[in-house]
Amino acid sequence: MIGTAVAQQSLRSVLGFCNSPQMNAPEA
Fold first, then answer.
1. d(Cα 1, Cα 17) in Å, to the nearest integer?
2. Residue 22: what pLDDT?
3. Which value, in Å, is the radius of gyration of the alpha carbons in the chain?
4. With the CA atoms of 5, 11, 14 and 16 taken in that order, what torsion angle do they form, in degrees rounded to the nearest 10?
5. Do residues 26 and 20 make contact, with C-beta atoms less than 8 angstroms apart?
6. What is the pLDDT at residue 20?
7. Quick one: DSSP state of residue 13?
8. What is the predicted pLDDT for the residue at 26?
9. How far apart, in whole angstroms, are the C-alpha atoms of residue 6 and residue 4?
10. How confident is the model at residue 27, as a pLDDT?
11. pLDDT in tens, the chain (28 residues)
């Protein structure tokens, strides 16, 4: 449902952030 879609989106966003070369940014 909507909750699942939101969870999948946030999960993809987190995974993409962890896989991005900017993982060592001060905001991490």
1. 24
2. 63
3. 11
4. -90
5. no
6. 66
7. H
8. 61
9. 5
10. 59
11. 788 988 888 888 887 766 666 656 565 4
Residue 28: CB atoms within 10 A of its CB come to 9
Task: Name the residue with tokens 């905001």.
Answer: 27
- Name the pTM for this structure: 0.45
Token code pair at residue 24: 């060592």
Longest dimension (CA), the chain: 35
Which structure tokens are listed for 17? Answer: 């952030």
Residue 11 tokens read as 């999960």
Q: Locate tokens 């993982």: which residue?
A: 23
Report how far apart, in Å, the C-alpha atoms of 24 and of each of 2, 17, 28 are: 32, 10, 6
| Owner of token pair 């952030």 | 17
